[in-house]
Amino acid sequence: MCALKHSLVLEKMNCLCTLIKLEATHIYTYLGKKIDITPTQKDGPEKKITRLAIGVEGGFEPDDGKKYEFKESYSIVLMPTLATYSLDDPEVADKLSAVKAILEADCSTKLAELEALAGTWDGEKRIVTKHADNLKQLNNGVKIPSSGWQCSMCDLTSNLWLNLTDGAVLCGRKFFDGTGGNDHAVQHFSRTGYPLAVKLGTITQEGKADVFSYDEDDMVEDPNLVQHLAHFGINISAMRKTDKSMIELELEGNQKLGEWATMQEATGPIFGPGYTGMRNLGNSCYMNSVMQVIFSIEDFEKKYFENFTETFLRNTSTNPVQDFEIQMTKLGTGLLSGKYSKPLPEGSKEPRGISPNMFKNMISKGHPEFSTKHQQDAQEFFLHFLTTLQRNCRNSTDPSECFKFKVEDRFECGASHKVNYTYRTEYCLPLPIPLDSAINKDEVQAYKNHVKELESSGLKPDPNIIVRPIIKLQSCLEAFAKEDIIEQFFSSAINAKTTAKKTTLLSTFPDYLMLHLKKFMLKEDWTPMKLDVAVDMPDILDIRHLKGHGLQDWETPLPELEGKPDFYLDDAIIQPLVDMGFPLEAAKKAAFFTSNEGLDKATEWVMQHVGDSDFADTFVVPGTNSDKNFVPNEESLSMIMGMGFTKTQATKALKETNNEVDRAVDWIFSHPEASSSTEEESQPEFRDGSGVYRLVGFISHMGTSTMVGHYVCHILREGHWVIYNDENVSLCSNPPRLLGYLYLYKRVE
């Protein structure tokens, strides 16, 4: 019987802390549980996994390999006397019907899993393509045989995709390990715009197959697939599945990654407080890695673990499932208490870890990306988590203060050489990766030449032998702090546009410095890719040379701007960029900084700056003070003030969000340090100290883009490195520091 049913009964009865399934200690008081060891017999070959799901047909079985079974008994506990009754007791007969219904119900996790899988194929939830009913198919006489396919542009005979518009058979994308295809199918889409392709070899007699929509950039469902295939002479009744589906390839890749972790981290598992793993809920490794790192920090341990009993006694939430404080405390207790990290019982294949189902549902609720089971960017989730944290800590200690630092931007007018300093708050320091600063350029070029020779001979390079560019972290820091030239800078000193020099430094140093290496970018065809580079990260990092000191005695500040400068933004440039999915404010910047010279130049500007930390921030003409010229919409101002916020808060939020009410309210919640009611209170406080840090953790990504691959994290605990690979927690003698994505440094006092 599903263990979650037990907690559901206890939740309904408000049985102490088991309301939110935190303390198993209380469960054993009212739930009798006996473990009987039973022999395990296996009939036939090992089951093949075909769905990326847990506890459903074709997916992973959570109890696979178990050599015991539970025998359980139930009791009813009446509050507040804590009187206990057997289910057979006549004194509680009127309660039995409700209890019976609860016990017989499917647990909430199973229902949520089944709901997510409804209408899916091979365990991946897919949308119905917008091209299903109006797909253009050319009458070009192309007929596709039932077998013997080959890419029309190379000699590949696997990973082939049939374009459903013109019948072209082409190979798919190249995978991160060097296998896969040669990108001919996606190149064909770039040339023709024909959107749908079906993977040959995955077509079944039931009319199911892998269908990819290039302009929707996702795997999709095509309800008219049978008719679309028939157009090219394909009779599905004669088809047999002969190739791996994309979900099978993803599973296989993850299994290979698991083997990689085993080979690299051969020191062995470790158990105890702080060494608890987190089960993968279906591409939730990005969340698991971030939260493991979060709970390695004293600020979070102190707030959400040390006083967890007091938290539950004090909290009066009527909906603990969606209560941030309760779910964080529950997660922190699960990870740090050590109760769920003990040596494996006899017969267990691997650690179970804890299942952060409720936390994931709470933290991702309403978010268009994190609420799905798709792979996500760990850095984006980290910032989303901090935003949610700050929203829920307005009247209590905010542990995210340990990450917060002030960034100083200095602008020097190219005509008058007068300066202007602006400041902003950040929680993560993004660093560019200058490929031209690689210290092994000759070796990299020799490797590339070797790969070309192999491919020209029809051979594939060994994916286990890769020569990556190696770049020093110091080169990344220099690229961050280097002087940039700003075009179209409006100088209040000359009351006209000119060029300016911009330098960025740190005005304060946080207790914990999170570094974000900007490895992900967009290719020319706008598909995401990851730079395959190695960055040499030191154990001890000294960034004192990046300290900003504000206006100096020898500098003359730019005068305050009188009036508002005239400028024009071409909507014929802005709107197409917005239609492509870029933020409106970014589109405005693209038009402005390219002097409205056309969509092509604006698009190029966007592609070059999409990784900027202020990419989507409100557009302000460089050199102007937006606070002096902004006029809030009176109706919007009244609406926000009607919610209990002050005029100062409402005005600031509307300015930051271009007078959009909904965004303004969200901005107030996510920027508590900037929303105080008085000018003096609105100045955020920053922790500051030495700029010398020690590496204490990092998150690594394996794969070609944020949409695929796998995340793991390494954390320095009690003097040794530990790898957290979902539920697997092991000692690590040689952590791969060069291949990380997010790095956490702690100040050395």
From TrEMBL:
Organism superkingdom: Eukaryota
Enzyme Commission number, as recorded: 3.4.19.12
Residues bound to Zn(2+): C151, C154, C171, H184
Record domain UBA: where: 568-609, 631-671
Residue span(s) of domain USP: 276-748
UniProt xrefs under CDD domains: Peptidase_C19B (cd02658), UBA1_UBP5_like (cd14294), UBA2_UBP5 (cd14386)
GO BP field: protein deubiquitination; proteolysis
Active site, UniProt feature: C285 (nucleophile), H710 (proton acceptor)
Domain UBP-type: 127-236
Catalytic function, reaction form: Thiol-dependent hydrolysis of ester, thioester, amide, peptide and isopeptide bonds formed by the C-terminal Gly of ubiquitin (a 76-residue protein attached to proteins as an intracellular targeting signal)
Keywords, ordered alphabetically: Hydrolase, Metal-binding, Protease, Repeat, Thiol protease, Ubl conjugation pathway, Zinc, Zinc-finger
GO molecular function list: cysteine-type deubiquitinase activity; zinc ion binding
Alphabetical list of SMART domains matching this protein: UBA, ZnF_UBP
Family: Belongs to the peptidase C19 family.
PANTHER family per record: UBIQUITIN CARBOXYL-TERMINAL HYDROLASE (PTHR21646), UBIQUITIN CARBOXYL-TERMINAL HYDROLASE 14 (PTHR21646:SF10)
Protein name from the UniProt record: Ubiquitin carboxyl-terminal hydrolase
The species this protein was found in: Clastoptera arizonana (Arizona spittle bug)
